[in-house]
Amino acid sequence: MMQWLARFTEHYRQPISKVSADTYREGLKDLTPGQLDAACREAMRTSEFMPVVATIRHAFQSLNNSGDSYTGRPAYLDEPPLSAEEREYTPEEAEQINKVKRSLGLM
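RE: above sequence
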């Protein structure tokens, strides 16, 4: 958060007090680092004035609603786990792998 506050104060030419910094931190503490980064990036991209906590939250919500919801979590992590059957090689695949290993002198 402090990195984004430094960017905001520089970009919008607005000084920030310790109380304001604490308010940002408290108001956004439930966001993950990836969510916070995405929300602040979107807020900076769309805000004409220095974003306040509500503006950053609105930016995060608009990302979630737009289908571009970057939350810092890759989509593949939410895929269902492979079954035991999917983890096993078919006999044909196992034979091909062993053939390559033999040709490389690994077996």
